[in-house]
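Protein 1 of 2
SEQ + STRUCT:
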Amino acid sequence: MTRIPKIFALLAFLMAAGCRDSYPSVVPPLDILYFPVGMTVRQMPADKTVEARKYGWSQLVVLNSNFDLRYDERTGGSLLVIDPDLSGEATTGGQLAVLGSARVASFGGELAMADGRCEYLWPDCPSYCSTIAQEKEIKDGGAKLVFASRSSNVIYRMSMAGDGSISCNGTCSFTLPITVLDPYGVSMVCSERSGIKVAHAYVSQLMSANNLGYLSKLSLVDDKTGIQPLVLGADSTYTSVFDRVNDRLFVSSAISINPQFRWFNPLVTASDVDGFLVPDYAGTFFSSFLTGAVARDMALSTDGKRLYVSVLLYDLTLAIQTGILYTQGGAVASFDLEQNVLGEPSMALMGVARTCLGAGQIRRLPVRYGMPDLFAVSCDLEGALAIFDSESHTVVRYVGHDPTTGLPVLGRYPFGLAVEPINPLRATRNGPTSTYPDSPCVDRIACTRIYVGSFLDNWINVLELDPDWPGEAVVVKRIGRGP
């Protein structure tokens, strides 16, 4: 039997850790990485006063999980805002350029951000939320950050200023109403299409009472509403993604045999049943789309016509006979979202491409005008990254193990992903004495960056590629260090 994906081993570890009488009272330094999980990034306008920022710069936000509880359970996690260009090389002990930080509870999961603008190089940036753009802190260049602590059953909503500093404007943490939940995945829903300004975060629950499919809904601006629990039938939820084109929230399930796959319109008022919101959701067993597969993370095409799902492949016959999922690999499955006569997405399977082993994340790379979408897929168990071409349904770049050392190039258990386009004038130039090559973007007209966090080695890989030549993607830098 293969290893259980890391994110679910977290749960087993947490249950065992819950038997302890006490936790260490040590708090972590706020300039290190320590089992990083969630990541997101946004671009900032050029700052002519700083040489490294004169062609624009980035704020990379990282959530550290304190997975082994080396630090205090209640305050041992941390949220860091980093300037990746000003951060030193990890392998030589370079320091992170930390712009802002906050101590939070341990066992963090996914991380989502909402702000009020996209820089000119990234017109389709996923953090843009028009419905909060006129909020004062957002107009001043700030952003909202939402994430959860799995061990404390708390959802955080924090504010990030334009300089990267972190603060609490109002209520920062919201305690879940049911103690047996396990909050993990986060998606943002921002829309004015219903005639009402909607700005909410939806947080999935890997564990729930009676194996019901719970989601937690949290306003990005309202402190009074608090957490609103939603129920979507059977099977715990893994994560979700919002389709801005068709106003649908797609929800995958936690690992189980033959789990459900669901979707609903989050702009439509849900029914209230005994204090729980029950949306008019649709869906079916994921095996009806693809036999022997479990849906994990998801991403949408630029035009909103396709849904790309990172899937875990398993032997269905053995699973039915033994009740155990024997992992056989990973893949990306693409589905057609064209509406059928009932107004629902057809969910026709358009293709499946093998990637690598693991239940990591999937992120669509920034738009390539006139060219098909590219997707980055992390595979924690295999220690690899795959870049998937949506037109050819093939992996066009694979970053795996070093042929000399046999070790994963990206470090052990690469999981968290963040992507952005950058000005090619920011492309990394390492020089002849460096162990890293120069960026393939040097002297090109476009450049894309991929950030990949190594969960066990406590560093973040920085890869760069010319979007016209994704097969040339290389690691140009590693930033961060552990304790």
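Protein 2 of 2
SEQ + STRUCT:
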Amino acid sequence: MSGAVRSGIDFTGTQTAYRIYGYITNAGTPLSGVTVSCTGQPNTTTNASGYYEFVGLSNSTYTVIPSGLGYTYVPANASVTVSSADQRQDFVTVVLNALLFTSSRDGNPETYVANADGTGQRRITNDAAMDTDPALSPDGTTIAYATNRDGNYEIYTIDVAGNVSSRTRLTNAAGMDWGPTWTSMIGPPAGYANRILFVSDRTGSRKIWKMNPDGTGQAQVTTGAGNDQFPTIGNVTNLNGINEGWVIIFASDRGTGNGNDGLYFKNLSTGVEGPVIASNPAVNMTEPRISPNYQYVAFSSDAAGNAQIILLTLSNLAQVTRAANAAADYQPSWVVGDNTTIYFVSERTGAPQVWSVYKPPILPEVLAQLTTSGDNWQIGRRTFP
């Protein structure tokens, strides 16, 4: 019937093109300007809402990769399978200079992360037990921490997004395991690159141990008499005139006999252990952290009567106090790539809070308080990639 219009006929449509989309956030804040790539597609960037999308996709598996702006992305890339439906893939970020710490602001000690300047503070762990002693991996994607959720303290890892599905138990010993810190991924001698150092009393006294990031290969590192803790690793080419190479610097009471710590090192090539500086039984020198350029060690000392942050120059063993105050200052840590800024915990406002001290050449120190809510302490130990 030429030219006629028929009615009452239904049509069905089948979607044959799909999209991959998602949001990229940093500490819960949308992140714009992130470059996102997808297999076989032109790159796109996130908008002001942190949103990106790739449209017109057929059924297949695609690799989606965010990059740029100086962030580490979690996951670093994602394999996304389109199977007759749109697919959402979100990413979170954390700055490589992320600040980790323990906080009791929500009722019990939990692990928190923030940007290097203290902004964007967010909770990572959420458990009735205590989750403490955080340490960020060199690539900024994984947090190792100590928790007593199993009755005694053991080492766990979790991704920086805090996904419970990523939580992994690494140690399972009769004694307590705590104080994790990562080693550099490139540089240390065989058996020490990309490892987690930690403290364990499984043999009776506290010793430094090491393991692979998945918990395998657990082995004791320090062997001297006494109790050892707070390991930090670096390539020390000038320790009071001697090129020691890669060493672990740690605190130990082996030279005091009364529980006070002194500063010691273990040469990872020769196995020799010895004092960094002479111990003083009347002084507690503890919590050492080596600088990004391996030329300094920040530690806490009560030589002045209360704990203060001391900067030790390794080449000549000269000491200078940083952020001097009548209240206790302790638990120093370094900003990655910055040999002039130290994080530390201070009780100068009453409750323990996280602070930073920046000391440019010649000019006076610049102090900043980074936390205010609840008690905040145990600043995350950082190792440099």
